[in-house]
Amino acid sequence: MDNKDSEAEIHPLKTEDVKAQENHENFVERRIVKSSGLSRLSRWRTAAFFISLFLCLIIVFAFSFIIPCPERPVSERTWFRYYNDAVPYQFLAIEDVNEDKVQDVLFAFKSSNGSSSFNRSCLDEGLPSPCAFVAAVSGTHGSVLWESPVAEDVQWLQCGIQQLGTAEAPGCLVVGKPLSLIAIDLQTGEVLWRESGDFGANYTLLTPLSVIPDVDNDGVQDLIIFITKGGQVKTFIHSGKTGQQIGSTGSLTVDGNARYIRLDLRSSSYFLFYTENSLYAYSLKDLCSAAVGMEIKLPGLQQDPQWEKNIDHTTHRLSLLRFGDFRYLAKVPGPSQDNILVVNSEMATLINTKDLHTVWTLNVSRALSEPLLGYYKPDVLGIVLESEIGPNRKKVMIVESGSGAVQWDLKLNSGAGSPGPATLSTADHRSAFLIWGDYQEPGNETRERAPLQKLYLFHPSYSNVLLELRNSTDQIIAFTAVLFERSRHACYVLLRGPQPGEGPGPVSLMKRKLKEDVSGSRVIWLSHMAGDSEQYIRDRLYRMRFQSRV
Questions:
Q1: What is the pTM of this model?
Q2: Fewer CB near the last or first residue (10 Å), C or N of the chain?
Q3: Which own/partner pairs from 308-312 qualify as long-range (CB within 8 Å, at least 24 positions apart)?
Q4: Residue 406 above 90 pLDDT?
Q5: Each residue of 220-252: pLDDT tens digit?
Q6: What angle do CA 435, 436, 440 make, to 5 degrees?
Q7: Is residue 283 part of a domain?
Q8: Residue 462 lies in a domain
Q9: What is the tally of structural domains in the chain?
Q10: CA-CA distance, 136 to 186, in Å (whole number)?
Q11: Per residue in 35-72, is it b (16+ CB within 10 Å) or e — as a string?
């Protein structure tokens, strides 16, 4: 015991060192155990990383090489569809029928049989021969997607109606003659419903037909149809689900044969009926309530207080709009809502729909076609007006919608039945204008008895240049221009054949890519200016890009 105490006195830190040494050994042992656990965890993490990477590579490999990517349809630059012994109707509709993101063409013709692709006849549907067919043709390559014999004759064809019957896809509505309403599935051409009716004799159908909110609460929007007969406008509301008439027939007092446009304001809709000397306004709420026999409260079926102040509720005439000799009424988009362009035999007048005041007037003699919208300046809306200036002569004007200033004009020879103009939006926020006529260069004023139908392209980047794209002596029944794919593939479509009322003959439907004609076009100088060569202009306009406006 004394020895231990002596040793402790001689080495006072020895005991503490022993304890520290023991503690250090325990700490190292614990650290080794902990490091061993972390090492195993690290190996597991590494293994999980490489396994995940391996799985990702397998998925990428599968999607890249094993699972084929959906093929993008390759659109032909030009295609034709021919029918023999047929008569075409003046309808062309553009819709994506087969959902391949390429627009397709719908049209109607009268014949005993359809194309050889489907080999359907009028007798298949219990119709007398010949009868009216509706056909959908692929915008990609011109093949027939479907054909349907629908009626003895066709008064009107309207496609792109979002709800018809119980089909989820959009549909087409055919107004047949003798009177029948036929709803067709846009994707298959199958008849969704068929409803016979009787408008009596000597009536005129007012077009286009209007889609209205669901009046009968069956979950499908409904249709309102107007006809003129004996100095009156009669209204019929039909179910979009079954085609059956809803309520009773309405009668509007109108002095003469009328036409109409529908004007959608912020919370209300009005139908403007115009005759040669008068203009009438009816709210959608009044028309629906009169048909059903009770007041209807639905979204969008309100009345505008400002408009109601200016409507004579006895005659329904608009008191502030006293014009004469109405030719056309057209909607022109404004800053907050649509305005109205009134075109009569002497002038065009833009009316502000908020307060019904005149924005501007412009001298326009004898308008030949409905006003068309386009862009001469970037993002500045313009209006294309065609007016007659003499026998077989017309003037084409592009007018700024906000001020009424004439931005560009052109005089052309033009025969009866010449197609109206068309516009396509370009990537520089302007428009390419397609115009039919026959341009006579100064000093060469000799006119042919029947001017050739020539198609010209004009773009505001070259205000002194026209491109002559093609000329035709065939009878053109319908013409339109459209982007067949979003923001690309600008084309025009021509439907040619015998005029309505003539005997059957060859009918052709053609789609042609616009750039194909631009590359081989003839450059016409409206005014000579030093600068670019003709080939440079062709190349520049060939490279022009198009875009879809929302």
A1: 0.84
A2: C
A3: 308/283, 310/356, 311/281
A4: yes
A5: 999 999 999 887 899 999 999 999 999 998 888
A6: 100
A7: no
A8: yes
A9: 1
A10: 9
A11: eeeeeeeeeeeeeeeeeeeeeeeeeeeeeeeeeeeeee
Higher pLDDT, 5 or 68: 68
Cβ neighbours for 79, distance < 8 A, ≥ 6 positions apart? 141, 142, 510, 511
Angle at 265 between CA 261 and CA 269, to 5 degrees: 55
Integer Cα distance of 275 and 255 in angstroms: 7
| Tokens of residue 370, six digits | 């409905």
Q: How far is it, in rounded angstroms, from Cα 509 to Cα 106?
A: 10
Q: Are strands 465-472 and 522-525 parallel, antiparallel or unpaired?
A: antiparallel
Quick one: CA dihedral 284, 289, 292, 296, positive or negative?
Answer: positive
The two structure tokens encoding residue 178: 């003798």
Residue tagged 């159908």 (tokens): 205
d(Cα 383, Cα 180) in Å, to the nearest integer? 37
Residue 95 lies in a domain: no
Structure tokens at 418: 């010449």
* Neighbouring C-beta atoms of residue 197, cutoff 10 Å: 16
| Spatial contact of 147 and 131, defined as CB atoms under 8 Å apart | no
| Other beta carbons less than 10 A from residue 415's beta carbon | 16
Q: What is the dihedral sign for C-alpha 547, 94, 268, 358?
A: positive
- Compute how many other C-beta atoms are within 10 angstroms of the C-beta atom of residue 152: 17
Backbone angles phi, psi at 512, to 5 degrees: -135, 130
* Separation CA 489–CA 545 (nearest Å): 9
C-alpha pair distances (Å), 90 with each of 93, 387, 500: 10, 22, 8
**Which residues are bridge partners to 433 per DSSP?**
423, 458
- Give the torsion through C-alpha atoms of 8, 11, 17, 22, to 10 deg: -50
Task: Give the phi and the psi of residue 215 in degrees, each rounded to 5.
Answer: -80, -40
d(CA 82, CA 86): 10
Domain extent at residue 450: 368-550
Buried b (16+ CB within 10 A) or exposed e, 284-319: bbbbbbbbeeeebeeeebbbbeebeeebeeeebbbe
Percent with pLDDT over 70 in the chain? 87
CB 255 within 8 A of CB 319: no
pLDDT digits (tens, 9 = 90+) for 292-335: 877 777 766 788 888 899 898 888 988 766 666 788 999 999 88
Q: Supply angle C-alpha 57, 63, 69, rounded to 5.
A: 160
Q: Is 349 part of any domain? A: no
pLDDT single digits (tens) 326-372:
889 999 998 888 999 999 888 999 999 988 899 999 999 889 999 99
Task: Supply 107's token pair.
Answer: 């049209």
Contact 362, 348 (CB under 8 A): yes
Token look-up 């979002």 returns 162
C-alpha 328/C-alpha 349 separation (Å) is 11
Pair 136, 130: CB distance under 8 Å: no
Residue 493: phi and psi, rounded to 5, are: -125, 135
